[in-house]
UniProtKB/TrEMBL annotation:
The keyword Mitochondrion does not apply. Residues 4-101, 244-349 form the PH domain. It comes from Oncorhynchus tshawytscha (Chinook salmon). This is Pleckstrin. Keywords: Acetylation, Phosphoprotein, Repeat.
Amino acid sequence: MEPKQIKEGYLVKKGTVLNSWKVVWVVLSDDGVEFFKRKADSAPKGMIPLKGAVLTSPCQDFSKRALVFKLSTGKNQDHFFQATHLEERESWVKDIKRAITCLQGGVKFARKSTRRSIRLPDTINLSELCILMRDQENGVKEQKLEKEKRVYNHCFTGGTVVDWLISKDKARNRPEALMLATGLLNEGFLQPAGDVSKQGVEGGAVSTVLDEPNALYYFADSGFFCEGYSSDEDVIVKDEFRGNIVKQGCLLKQGHRRKNWKVRKFILRNDPAYIHYYDPTKGDEYPLGSIHLRGSVITAVEFVPDAKRYDVDGNLFEIITSDETHYFLQAATSEERKEWIKAIHTVSKTGK
């Protein structure tokens, strides 16, 4: 009987030989995880059996990489994967853990109910705590702060985190709040921004989060951005990063010059109406480029010029900007393509 396919999509994976991080197409079945160099490839680069496997999330083996999880085989071979945002990592981790449990128990894979209990757990769940902190109304307020002669967007101070934890009765005092914030940092939910906070992480103190006005931090998947850099492809306007994140994830993008296709992480903001794209192997601090969506046209397409040369086919869509620049993108599935088109279309009509 063929293995049941459970989930598929782009993830960043650490190489087992060269130790480099590259984007791969990952397919989760009920008995293993396969990863491919490209989605169109018929043969995988490797397969990780789930029998006897152990999943560790979050994984803290890499201080400069957030949202990493580790899958260790029964033969003690470690495989490291990195997601592009928190919800994506939690989704992969949940399904892989469930697949391992089902395999061990000899039962068919079935997702558990997603209904949430109103009653909070007795012990603090850092993932749930981060979701509360990210709440637009009652969470930690992201700001635009100028420190060390640079401007940091979508960030906050260590003191702000401490104050919030105490005000929401998550901690009884500042030392306790600092230890809780350190847990969030250690598990990759928070990231240091700027020299002061990075030195705190590298200092080896018990509490790596600093309760200081010059110590800045940001949420791992917030689209944090530090002004004062040069872009590889487009000029980035500072005000582009003001809006809230509407949708984010990996898409295949056709380059304008060489017409080659590469996987990019896209972050869609609503006001102003911009979508930025990044190299998913390098983080979200420096975008490769941006697309101004106001007045643009978004449509599904079945054919892209020069696409056949690169074995790219299916789930394609096009963004035509107000200045008639054409961007060709490919989603992982037809449903994902519909979601992206709908979200981008809405932003193009309502955002500035």
